[in-house]
Design goal:
The protein contains no helices and 5 strands. The chain is mainly beta.
Amino acid sequence: GVKALNGRRVKVAGFMMPLENAAKQGRFVLLAYPPGCPFHMHAGPDQFIEVRAAMPFPVEIERAIVVEGVLELTGEDESGIFFRITGARPG
């Protein structure tokens, strides 16, 4: 079912894991659980989505956010990313 969404606009909810030390993030990882959760220490590549934002998102790590953008199924690239959302905006 996920393959049919490749290249389509989708909405996904999850928890932001910032990749830079900044108040706004243009690129971050979206997880299914809070980044500091002690019960989910090792996320597999099928459990997160790289997000590339159209405009930077304010950092929000305490609660889930909704992201809307174009889903790319990358297979497995050199970074281990399977899923990417580009042109992302708050959903």
